[in-house]
Amino acid sequence: MPRKRGAGADLPLTADINVTSLVDIAFTLLVIFIITAPILQGGVEVSVPRADVQPLTAQDDPFFVSILPDGRIYVDEQEWTLDEFRDGIGGLLEAADIDRVYVRGDSTASWGTMMQVIGVLGRQPGLHQAFVGEPWVRD
To answer: Is the pLDDT of residue 44 over 80?
Structure first.
């Protein structure tokens, strides 16, 4: 039986996938990820001083107290006044069963605020304090 010649009968059959749109979507998602990743990190931006310090070891959930240059105190990412810190940090540490606090003081923060925070933490029974610094890069 002879083959009918109709519309498209002479065109060869190809099974290629057009990946141009797939690559465009992949690059668009990559650009979105690159832009949003720094925003999602969160945390309080503190410029810690350089010192001859050891790197932090991996810990499940480090607990940070940060002191900013203008004297603001952050417990993890929540801002506290000095009075709130004095009155509430003990209960928070006990309720969360925290035995180690990392103090991140900005290199330009007031030494008076730093001493008050350190003093309050020092009065907590069984609490270990560690101070965060940026290690010097030796040549």
So the answer is: no
